[in-house]
Each structure stands twice: as structure tokens, then as C-alpha cells.
Specification:
With about 45 residues, this protein is an all-alpha fold. Helix content is about 95%, strand content about 0%. The longest helix is centred in the middle third of the chain and has 43 residues, at about 1-45. The termini are far apart.
Length: about 45
């Protein structure tokens, strides 16, 4: 009983960490994209 509960808790924590990491990655991608667009506008605009 205790082992399965611990496993579930670990799974939830791990999935939460992964979700946070993926959100962070998406955020950095968006920021990079925006900065690239700004640079392009500055260079070509």
C-alpha cells in the first residue's frame, strides 16, 4: 500500500516538474522568436 502511494506521489511530482520544464522551454522559444523578429525589423525595417 505504502509503496504504491509513494510511487504515485513520485509520478505526480515528476510529471509536474516535466510540465514546468516544458512550459519554460515554450516560454524561452517564444522569447527567442520575439527577439529574432525585433532584430529582423531593426535590420530590414
Amino acid at each position: 500500500m505504502i509503496d504504491s502511494q509513494a510511487l504515485l506521489v513520485n509520478l505526480f511530482v515528476f510529471s509536474g516538474i516535466r510540465a514546468k520544464l516544458s512550459k519554460k522551454a515554450e516560454l524561452t522559444k517564444c522569447i527567442q522568436r520575439k527577439s529574432i523578429e525585433k532584430v529582423r525589423r531593426y535590420v530590414y525595417g
